């Protein structure tokens, strides 16, 4: 059942975007609103758990700021900021089990943090050090997909494999509002609905597909599209970490119990540029940015914690120290990253030996030897 056709049963106090109400448990002022449908799904989130979610969000914002600084200093070629989208990623990411598998775009660094990624691995691709950042099976998260929307097909295929294996794990795929115009996403929705695959489609509607506003390609809420494929959907306040946790948990329960896919539209806002190569001031009204800054996901959970007397100076200092320590580790990992050997480009191309690739590597090694440096395996100087 579509969220848009059943709002009366599920909707508590809610923000409204584009004239459509959003599931919201914590408003922009940090006030906790009861919701009879979703409250049981987060009944275990006490004060300590809220503090843990807040810490996660502070840390990933600090990771994002440090990586942006590294790019500006010439240490990274590019970086895709997630500023403003911390609640959507942390709320959903902390709902997952370890055996669930994530297929993301290039912006879900907070989800990767939830999955336990090594901090240095977050930067390998952006430093040009490797063709992928980590072993997907080590953290059950595929390396980020740059081809817009392609990861939704990967997730649906993986979910169909889960069905064949008789397991109760779930595939979760993250993508932006712009990706919903891609054929890949729509094909993934068709397959997921047809096979009732255990996959969660998590769309972060951050209002901008690079330089084009979401309203240009989506004249109705994006969540309204999924029921046309036979997939239930929900539209949630993407700046509310507790609401994002609740709706993701509900979708996971549905998938594990044989109920098939769910489409979640988390309505949030990209506070920074699309990537560090972008200048949003060329196309974005500063008044819009100011309006959304008032809905900052960190500020609202901080206000809630403060109202509960759970954000004293000592705790705030502890969280800041944790974030600073993570940032220092990230920077050290980036600057200390060993240069790859020239022939590393041939690694991990195929899962089994390939004579065609071996021949290419042999030719390349002999080409490098022609320069007289005597080696083809040492890192570049």
Give structural notes.
The protein has 381 residues and is α/β, with parallel strands linked by helices. The protein is built from 14 helices and nine strands. The strands form three sheets. A five-stranded parallel beta sheet has the order 3-4-5-9-8, with helices on both faces. A two-stranded antiparallel sheet has the order 1-2. α2 crosses α3, α2 runs parallel beside α13 and α3 runs parallel beside α10. The radius of gyration is 22 Å and the shape is globular.
Strand content: 5-15%
The tally of beta strands, per DSSP, is 9
The helix content, as a percent range, equals 40-55%
Which regions are unreliable across 5 or more consecutive residues at pLDDT < 50? 1-9
| Radius of gyration, whole Å | 22 Å
If helices are DSSP runs of H or I spanning 4 or more residues, what is the number of helices?
14
Mean pLDDT: 93
Succession of helices and strands = HEEHHEHHHHEHEEEHEHEHHHH
Main sheet strand line-up: 3-4-5-9-8
SS content category: alpha/beta
Characterize the overall form. globular
End-to-end distance, in Å? 59 Å
Largest sheet: 5 strands, parallel
